Amino acid sequence: MIMIMISTDASAPAKRRTKPSPPENKWRTGARERAYRSRLLEALRAAGERRASGPRAVKEAADSALALTARGQSRWSRAVLLRRRSRLLVRAGGRIRRRKRPRRRPVGPTPGTGQPEEGKKVRDRLRALGRLVPGCENLSTASLLEEAADYVAALEMQVKAMRTLADDLSAAAASGNGRRAEG
Amino acid sequence: MEKERFFGVNWQSMDAGMPPEMNSRAAAADQLPNSFLNLGWEQPMHHDAHFESALSSLVSSPSSNTPAGNDSVIIGELIGRLGSICNSGEVSPPSRYQSANTSCYSTPLNSPPKLNLSGMDHQQQGRGGVPVPGNQMAAGKFSPFAADPGFAERAARFSCFGARGYAGLGGQFGLPEAGKLSRVSSSQSLKAVQMVASDNGKEVPVSEPERPAMETRSKFGGEAEFGNSQEASSVSDRTTAVGAENNARKRKAASKGKAKGAPLSSSNMNPPKPSDGENSDAKRCKPAETDGADKDAAVKPKTEENGDVGRKQGEEGNAKPPEPPKDYIHVRARRGQATDSHSLAERVRREKISERMKLLQDLVPGCNKVTGKALMLDEIINYVQSLQRQVEFLSMKLAALNPQLDFNMEALLPKDMHQVLGQLPQQVYPLDMASTAFSYAQQPQGTPLQSIVTNSLDVQGSLNPLESSLRRPPTMQLPRLDGFTDATSQLGNLWEDDLQYVVQMGLGQSQGTAFSSQTMPVE
C-alpha cells in the first residue's frame, strides 16, 4: 500500500529529530527505478495521446512521474504534483488562488562562524537552493536541506531512468526503422 | 531494596545538618553513589517514591514525604542553586532533564573540590566560579542550600548510598558499565568520596545523588567505587583512575559540544581535576542519558572520542575542528557550553543542520573536497542545476522519440508491462478504495473544475478544499483493468488516476475521509 509519510520538522530543542534514513538509499533501489520507468512510460503515452509531445510536456510528465514515485513523502514531490494540477486547472480556464505560505524569515541565524560575511553568503545560497527545489522556497534550513537531499537523489534516478529509456527507444527505433526499411 | 539498606546505614549521619547534607548531596550528585538514586531519578520517580517512603520512615525529613516529583523539584531547586555556584555548564536546567538530577549534577560539580570542569565550561566558572578549593568550599556552598530540607534529605540519602552500601553494589556495576553513566558515576563517586572525606568527617560519603539519579541506569559503576572507598583518598584514587578517563572523555565530549556552541573559557577549569571533569561529564552524560538512549549511544562514541582526543583542557576552544562528526547528534549539554535552553536548542538545531549537510555532501559528488557551508552549498546548487538541465535535455530527446513510442510500445511494453502490471494492481485497487479521481483534465469539465477552482487551491495547506471540490457526483468507474491490451488509453487513465490518488492520499492523509473513487472518463 501506499505509505504516506508527512515529514515534520521538529525544531524544538529538546526534541532531537534524527534523520530516519538517508534518502538516497531509497532512491537508489532498483524497485524505485522500475516504478519510475513504468510511470514514465504511462505519462509519456498519456502525453502522446493528448498530442502534447513537446519537450516541455514531456519534461512535465517526467517530473510528475518522479513526484508520483516519491509517494508524496517529500515536500517537493507534493509541490510538483500540485503545481501540475493547478496548472491544469488554470488551463481549464479557472482562476486559481494560491495562498502562499507566509514568507518565513530568511534562512536561519548565522551559522555560528561569527562572521557576518559568511553568514550572508550561506544564507543567499540557501535561498537559491530553495528556489531550485520545487516547493521549498520558504523553508527552514533543516527541512530545506532534507528536501534537497531527497530531491537530488530523485533527480539522479530520474536522469538515469530517462537516459536508459531514451537509449532503448532510440535503439529500438533504429532497429525498427532498419527493419522497416528492409521490409 | 538496597536503598533502604543504605538508608538505614546512613541515616544516622543525616542529621549532620542541612548544609552538610546539602553539600553531600551536591557532592553526591557528582558521584553516583546514587546508582540507586539514579534509578529513582531517571525513571520518573519510581524509585523516588520508594525512596520517599523509605526515607520518611527512616528519617523524618520534611521532604521525605514529598512525592517523587517533589523530590526532583526540590533537588532541582537545590541544584539550581548549586548550579549557579558550580556553574555546571553541562547540566541543563532541570527543565531539560526534567528531573532534579540535572540540577544535582550541577551542584555536585560545585561542591566537590574537583568539580572544576576542566575549563570546559566557562559558564561554570562564571557561575560557580568555584575552582573548588576544596571540600570546604563545597561545604560552604552548600550552606546556602541548606534551606531546602528535601535537598538535605536527599543529600543524606545519597551520601549514605555512596558511603556504605555501594561497596557491594559498586562491585556489581563496576566500571564495566560502559555507558557514560558509568563514567559519570565513577567521577561522581570520586567526587563524592572526596567531598565526604574532606568535607565532613561524616561517614556519610557525599556521593552524588543527583548525578546518579540522572543516570539511573546502571551507572553504578561509579558508585561501586565510591562505596568501596570510604576514604576520600582511596576513593579519589580509584575514582580518579576510573573516572579520570571517563571524565576526560566526558569532558571532552562536553567541551566539544560546548566548543561548538560557546567559547570555551576554560582556563580555570583546566586545572586538572579529573574528578571535576568527570563530574561535569557525568552531569553531562546524565542529562544526555535522560534525553534518550540514542543520545547515550551517540554520546558514548563521542565522549570516547573526546577522551581519546586528549584531555587537554584546551578543548574548550573551538570545538569545530576537533569536533568529530558524530558529535552533532547529541543534544547533551557539553562541558564548557551553555546549558540554558536557548543555547541547547541552538545546538540541537545546528547539529541537525550539519547532519543534513553531511548527508548532502555524500550525495553530491565532489563535495568532499570543499569545506564550509558556502562552498558546499555552491556545489550542491550547481549539481542540482546540472541535473535539472540533464532532465530537460533528455526530455527533449524523448519528445523527439515520442512518435515512435507507439511503434515501440509493443517492444517496450512487454518488459515494461510486467512492471506496470505488477504495480498497477496495487495502484488500482487502492483507487477503488478511496480516492477521488481527479483527472488531469484531459477534458476538463466545467462544473467540477470550477468547484475545484473556487476552493482555492492551497498548495501548502491541506488538500481539503481540493478534495472536497473533487468530490463529484460519484460516477463510479472502476479503473479499467481489463484494457491492458489497449495499453495506451488504459495506462493513460490509470496514470492520471494513480497520480491523483497518490497525491490525494499523500496530501490528504490527514483527512481520513474515504472518497469514492471516481474516474473521470478520459477522452
Write up what this structure looks like.
The complex is a heterodimer of chains A (183) and B (523). Chain A is built from six helices and no strands. Chain A has 183 residues and is mostly helical. In chain A, helix 3 crosses helix 4. Chain A is globular. Mean pLDDT of chain B is 51; it is low at 3-49, 58-69, 88-147, 160-324, 416-493 and 509-523. Chain B has helices at residues 2-14, 18-30, 35-42, 46-58, 68-86, 94-97, 100-110, 122-127, 135-145, 149-173, 180-199, 210-215, 220-228, 232-261, 274-291, 293-309, 341-363, 373-401, 403-433, 446-454, 464-470, 487-507. Chain B is mainly alpha-helical and 523 residues long. Chains A and B meet through helix 2, helix 3, helix 4, helix 5 and helix 6 of A and helix 17, helix 18, helix 19, helix 20 and helix 22 of B.
Task: Describe this structure in a few short sentences.
By secondary structure, chain A is an all-alpha fold.
Features:
heterodimer; A: 183 residues; mainly alpha; 64% helix; globular; B: 523 residues; MYOD Basic-Helix-Loop-Helix Domain, subunit B; 22 helices; elongated; disordered N terminus; transcription regulation (chain B); protein dimerization activity (chain B); DNA-binding transcription factor activity (chain B); bHLH_dom (chain B)
